[in-house]
What does this fold into?
Amino acid sequence: MLRSRHTLPLLILMVVIGAGSVATALLIDWLPEQASEQAERVDTLIWFVVWVSLALFTIVMTVLLYSMWRFRVGEDDDEDGPPTHGNTRLEVIWTIIPSILLAVVAVWAYLVLSDNESLAASQDQVTVDVTAEQFAWTFSYPGAGIASGDLRVPEGKQVILKMRAKDVIHSFYVVEWKVKQDVVPGITTRLIIDPNRVGTYQVICAELCGVGHGVMRARAIVMPQDEYDQWLRSAQAELASQQGAAGSQGAQAPADQAPADQAPAEGATTTGAQP
Ligand SMILES: [Cu+2]
It folds into this structure.
């Protein structure tokens, strides 16, 4: 084991490196604001991994830096170091501890994912159909007949996004919700979010999809339930008056429909992918 003359300097070095690591983790606001139940679960797991990593980082850097300083050989010393043949006890320890940590993180991540995707009672759900195309998002509300370039959802309800792509692969991502899902041509992918914070966030396309990828943004607006209900009613009223003005031609229909050449394939896909 360590001889006593190494113990004190090692401990001092470890405290200095550890304090620097802890300060870096705590003093900088690393993660975006949490605006969903999913975000809270994901962040807790992230912080567990970060703290474990910082502890290991502190131990490794302490031993490394101390060895570089204390056991450095002279500049003219070209001799080989003494041969060593391993240390069974050390090797067992540094295999078992990471194995346990990996297993803990794997099980924890599985539990987070299954919690994140657990369905609420149907009266507490809001379903929104999402269409992604180069380079825009369209959100339509089944039953309400409304389509919008903004995603509006009520706070406290579970939001289920049913997402389709018209052209290439896109990816729906709102960093404050901490969930991301690819939107893939030919299939309907689903994303579940429990937004718990009123506010306006940014929908980002997180899959390189062409020249306009960087501007493929939309707003995700989380509203109190009563404001959401009010918005839904006024949007429906506006739609009805537009349709009245346009006669039998649905004013909002073009935003909602795929180009004629894609329509049959898309219709078939929807039917096939939904249970
Ligand atoms: Cu994109």
Summary: Residues 250-275 have pLDDT under 50 and may be disordered. Residues 125-247 form a domain with the Immunoglobulin-like fold (CATH 2.60.40.420). Helices lie at 4-27, 37-70, 88-116, 225-245, 253-256, 263-273.
